[in-house]
Structure formats: C-alpha cells, structure tokens
C-alpha cells in the first residue's frame, strides 16, 4: 500500500523510466528508438526538476520567511480560485474580478507549480510531441 501511495505522489517516474528503457531496448526501427529516447530524456528532466525542487525545499525549510512567503503567494491564488469556483457553482453574484495582467495568465501555472503538477504536465506534453512527430 505504501509503495502505491509513493508511486501516486511521485508519478512513478522510476517505473516510467524503466518502461521507456524497455521500449527502447525492444525498438526495431530507428524511429521507435528516437521516440523512446525523447521519452527517456523527458522523464529524466522531470526527475532532475523534482530533485532540484526538493533540494531547494530542504535548503529553505528552516527559514520561517520562506514558509510565510509561500503561504501568502499560494494563499492569494488559492483564495481567488476558491471564490471564483464558489461564485461560478452557486451563482452568488459576487462578480469576482480577474487578476490584473500578467497574473491572470499565470494564475493556473502558479497554482500547479506549488503542487508539482506543472512538471508532470510538461513531461506528458513532451511525450505526446514525440509520439506526434513519428506519424
């Protein structure tokens, strides 16, 4: 059970990398090997990004200022998202204004980056691009 939880949290990058190497090993054409190489590089980039993020979190974990800044930044965007969601779902008529530019375009990216989803999304996009390129 704990293994499944860890795999879910980490996105099972090690398992994905292992499968990508197996696909590359079994590839019978240069095209399939290139697609497998692209997938491997994407997964390795995701792993490096997670390692770097972990290193930064560990280096700044003892600073209360970093926790406060993170809370304020994430809190503002999360509160805005919550208010917009409530107003949209229940039609309270609050007319929550959008953030001014450029924050209106970055809000989703900022929220996703706090939850580590942005890195996974970039990896999926890279893999999809590699698959699309082989057609």
Helix and strand arrangement:
Elements: H1 2-10, H2 13-26, H3 30-60, H4 64-90, H5 103-114, H6 117-133
Helix pairs in contact: 2-3, 3-6
Describe the structure using short key phrases:
135 residues
What does this protein structure show overall?
The model has no long low-confidence stretch (mean pLDDT 75). By secondary structure, this protein is an all-alpha fold. 81% of the residues lie in helices and 0% in strands. The chain has a domain at 50-135.
Radius of gyration: 20 Å
Q: Helical residue percent? A: over 70%
Distance between the amino and carboxyl termini: 39 Å
Main β-sheet description: none
Give a quick summary of the entry.
With 135 residues, this protein is an all-alpha fold.
């Amino acid at each position: 059970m704990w293994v499944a939880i860890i795999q879910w949290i980490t996105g099972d990058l090690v398992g994905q990398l292992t499968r990508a190497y197996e696909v590359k090993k079994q590839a019978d054409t240069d095209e399939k090997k290139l697609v497998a190489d692209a997938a491997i590089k994407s997964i390795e980039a995701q792993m490096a990004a997670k390692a770097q993020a972990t290193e930064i979190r560990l280096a700044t974990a003892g600073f209360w200022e970093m926790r406060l800044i993170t809370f304020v930044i994430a809190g503002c965007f999360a509160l805005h998202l919550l208010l917009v969601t409530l107003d949209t779902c229940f039609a309270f008529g609050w007319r929550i204004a959008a953030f001014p530019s450029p924050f209106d375009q970055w809000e989703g990216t900022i929220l996703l980056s706090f939850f580590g989803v942005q890195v996974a999304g970039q990896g999926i996009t890279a893999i999809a691009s590699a698959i699309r390129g082989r057609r």
